[in-house]
Specification:
The protein is of the alpha+beta class and 414 residues long. The protein has 16 helices and ten strands. It is elongated and about 100 Å long. It starts with a helix and ends with a helix.
Length: 414
Amino acid sequence: MNIVWTIGLRYIFPRYQQRAVSVMAWIAFAGVALGSATLILALSVLGGFEQALYNNALQFTAHIQMQTDAGMPFINKNTLVRDILMSDVRIREVVPFIRQEAILRTPSGIEGIIVKADAEYAEWRNTHIVRGVPTFAADTAHTIVVSERLARKLNTDLGQSVILYSIAAHRQAKSALPTLTDINALTTRIDRFTIVGIYQTGIAEYDDMMVFMPYYAAREFFDLPEMSATGCDIILHERDSIESVRRSLLVRYGKHADVWTMYEIHSSMFSWIALQQNPIPLILGLISIVAMFNVISTLLMTIVGKIPSIGILTALGMKRRHILAIFIVQGTLLSSAGAVTGCGLAAALTWVQITFKIIRLQSESYFISYAPMQFSLWHYGVVIGVTLCVAVLASWIPARIASRLQPIQALRFR
C-alpha cells in the first residue's frame, strides 16, 4: 500500500495513544453519515410524494382534461376522439366521459357529489377497489362505486341502495360543439342506485365526493343525447409535452371547452410539493457546512497530536506535497466512509417504508394515506459527490498547515 494511504489510515484511528483523536474521528464520521442519511431521506420523501401524487392524479384525470362549458355535452364522442387524436401525434389516448354534479341521499344523510362515468374501462379500479367488484354488471345497470370515506359519512355500505338527484339539461344541439342556446329546459331527475364497489385512493378531494357509474346509465340519468360526452381525458406519450399540447388544444377547442392540465387540476397538491422542495439547496448547504467543520476539527486535532511525527517524516525526506496528501486522504476517507454509510442507512430505511408503509399520514392534510418514498440513484450520487467535494476542500486547509511546518519546530513541539 502507498505510504501516504498507510499513514493517513493510521492517523484516523491511532492504535496506542491519542484516543481523543480517534473519538473525534468517530464523531466526524457519524456527523457526515447522519447528515447524508437525513438529506437523502428528505429527497426520497419529496420524490416519493411527487411520484405518488402524479400517478394517482394520472389515474383519475390523465395528463390533460377537456370539459365543455357549463357541463353541456359534445354531441358525438367518437368524432371528438378521432379529431383529437389526429390533431397531435403526441397524444396517445383519448377517453370520453360524463361528469356532472348530483346529490346522494341515504337514510342517514345527504351529500353533494360529482358523478363521473368513463366511456371505457378505467384501470384504476383494479388497484383502488377495497371491497366489491371493479366492473359494472352492465353498462346500463343502476349501480355505482363510492369511496370508503363517503360510505362511512352516509352510513351506507356495499349492496345497499341510495337515491341520486340530478338537474339534467335537455339539449337538441346539432353540432359537435354546443353553445349556450342549446339549453332548452332544466329538470330534476331522481333515481335509485345500488352500491357494488367501494374504493379508496388516499386523496381526500377524490374520496370526499367522487362517485362512479356506468356510462350509459349516466347518460340516461342526466338526460344527455346518445353518443354524447361532457369531456374527455387525454393521455400523452411524454409527460414533458403537457403544456405545449394544452396550448394547441386551446387554440382548437378553447371557444367551447375548458382545457386543464393535471397540474392545474391538482394545483394545491403540486404547489405543496414545490414549496417543500425550495429549501433543499439550503439544507444541503447547511449539512455541507456542518460536515466541513467536523472534518476540519478532526484533522486539526490530528495535526496537533502528530506534529512530532510530521517533523520526523519531513526530516527523513518526505516532500511537502506528500504531507499535504496524507491529511487530504485522511479527510476524504473519513467523509467518504460517512457518506457511504449514510447512504446505506437511508437506503435501508427507504426500503422498509416502501415495503411495509410503516409511517401513516392523514390524507386530509397530505393527499395520501402513507408516506411514499422514492429510491433514486440520482439522490445518492448528488449527496456522495457533494460530500467528496466538501471533504477535499475541508481537508486542504489543515493539510496545508501541516505541510508548512518546519522540521526543527515540529521536533521540539511538546
